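Tutorial handout. Part one gives the primary structure; part two gives the three-dimensional structure as tokens.
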Amino acid sequence: MARSGPVGRTAVVPDVRGEGRALRATWHHEAGVVVLSIWRDNVCVATTRVDPDEVPTLVDVLVAGLGEGYRTPSTTPVLHGETG
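Part two.
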């Protein structure tokens, strides 16, 4: 499965392990759910149907994790006096 960003109601996020693994999140408004699916190459191997009322909880944990520990290369502290 090729990497892509948000497209309408679907986002595909590649797994850092590679090998064609990815997470796909898709809104299905007609069914009243968000489907999180696990893909390997072009084959869906697992799904979880999430009630839209639970989506803010998922978003909160992702945002909190970014705030607590994620650093982009431009925000990584530089330790003075170190040599590479």
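Part three, for discussion. The longest strand covers residues 21-28. The beta strands are 4-7, 10-14, 21-28, 33-40, 43-50.
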